[in-house]
Please model this.
Amino acid sequence: MSAAKTLFDKIWDAHVVDQSDDALCMIYADRLMMMEMQPQAFEGLRLAGLQVRQPSKILGVMDHVVPTINRAGPIADLISRKIVEQARIDYEEFGIELLDIADSRQGIVHVVGPEQGFTLPGVTLFCGDSHTATNGALGAFAMAVGTSEVEHILATQTVPIQKPKSMRINVEGELPFGCTAKDVILAIIGKVGTAGGTGYVIEYAGSTIRDLSIEGRMTVTNMSVEAGARAGMIAPDEKTYAYIKGRPRAPSGEDWEQAVAYWRSLPSDDGAKFDTEVHLNAADIAPQATWGTNPEEVVAISDTVPDPKNAPDEDRRGMMQRSMEYMGLTPGMRMTDIAIDRVFIGSCTNSRIEDLEAAAAVVRGRHVADSVHAMVVPGSGLVMREAEERGLHKVFLDAGFEWREPGCSMCIAMNGDYAEPGQRCASTSNRNFEGRQGREARTHLVSPAMAAAAAVTGHLTDVRELTLRGE
Amino acid sequence: MMKAFTVLTGIAAPLDMINIDTDKIIPKLHLRTTERTGLGKALFDEMRYNSDGSANADFILNKEPYQAAKILIAGDNFGCGSSREHAPWALVDYGIRCVISTSFADIFYNNSFKNGLLPIRVSKSELAALMADAKDVENPELSIDLENCCIRRPNGAVIEFEIAPYRRKRLLAGLDDIAISLQKQTEIDRFEQQQAHDQPWLNKATV
Model:
């Protein structure tokens, strides 16, 4: 019998086209997802006189610069309009299917892939966006690439990569009341650090991960890059197959049976070796909120803002001091005393139907605080329609939220949705970097339920107390 | 065609911060371009310019002699965050061809090589020595020799560094990855035929 293999080993081995140059492997790309931000890749093809090798294995969307309101006419912002128009030209010229802004399936690239059944267990999937690992929740090897690599895949349907190391993060036990997938991944990043996964592919395992819904798993894998890893994945199981079955691009009929039989062979073998293993107990996880300017600067909502004096080393002390200054906080203040100006519920991390349900459950019967400007941006047109069928938009609108159309919106704040200088935003997105949600804007990363709680109280709030009081 | 990298001698600027993320290197508003060039003026935008657009005199690249820096010495985990290749494009467009740190984010590290930008990993003590060299405004000049994988310091001392042989080879010759891979058409064809046979459902699904 051959050596025990990890999920990642199995997918990797099944996609090596060639390995001639020492450590470098030529890996086949089963899928490429694109959005409007890589015009340079197509320009590169034109300059070199190259064609797209496999247009049918590529799916394009628009998400980064698309407005979330007033979408009837051309985009008012001329730079964004030019980007979108160029993408239409590129997709058309090279024969790539595009789910354009007016398409009911349009949305954030990492929401659309799984939703359309384009993402499947066992496939290699690449996209020129760092949150591509989202797709790994279905048991795919989904890795973020740069524009040059996108161009490489367009031309050859392969990408040269050195095999990353493997890390397994095991989370065991039942999640405490009020905790969600977002709290799990924030707690993981708090433990391993923003560079802890550098050089690794992460497999998330353990009973807590298995007990998450597929959408919850996507929230976890989504933030792999915030721990430094280019890819994160979760073994496919019955929940995965149930999620995929019947989706537009999923196999069907006899093909389905064959596919599932193959997918069942993918989970890591007993005894498979990982380069690093990390263990967390779900019981130790509380609802999380970031206080600083990178995702590892995170604490439980019941904690206080940490003191740089207690930093483990000089480098970290410097970083914490800079974060403290940027965020306008003082050490020792209670997290729940931090007042909020903006609330953003959306992004590839938390914009799926369950996320909106979780937020709506907190909002129902309450109203957004007078001092807060809150908005919900569904991850895709299909999520939006589903939410409207369930009446969630009414819950949000009645409570004083804005209900927008799908896109990346305030997660990257390049479409006209942004926070003003000095404004503080409770956000369900993935990055709290300086300037991320607008110049001098301040971001606190939280779960959808926590964001909803902050919206109705006007300050960061322990959702557990709010939910208990409300019941 | 990628610019070859052999020996680089130039001023090294000290950027003594850890976790310099891609949003700091090139803020997203500057990503809305259809070009690869011209991003140098937006490099480190929010640290380099004041809100009114004037130069922030405290920022290292606004100080003599560092405006002409070709090398950057930075704290741990440089380039974390986004996959935006605009980060190496902006550095190269500014004139920086080498970044030295104790570690780099994977995607940034990988993107750099595609654009003739050499990221060098050194130990913590070596970084401290190079940071001190760079902070000496009288003589902050380093020489990077990729052929021999070493950094020559102003005092004549040499620090060796490691780099994957395939990366070194490609950078030294300015080889283009796509051109190399296009020579493997036969292997790609063979892979596709085998996969279509083994997993016939896989590509029906994408139609």
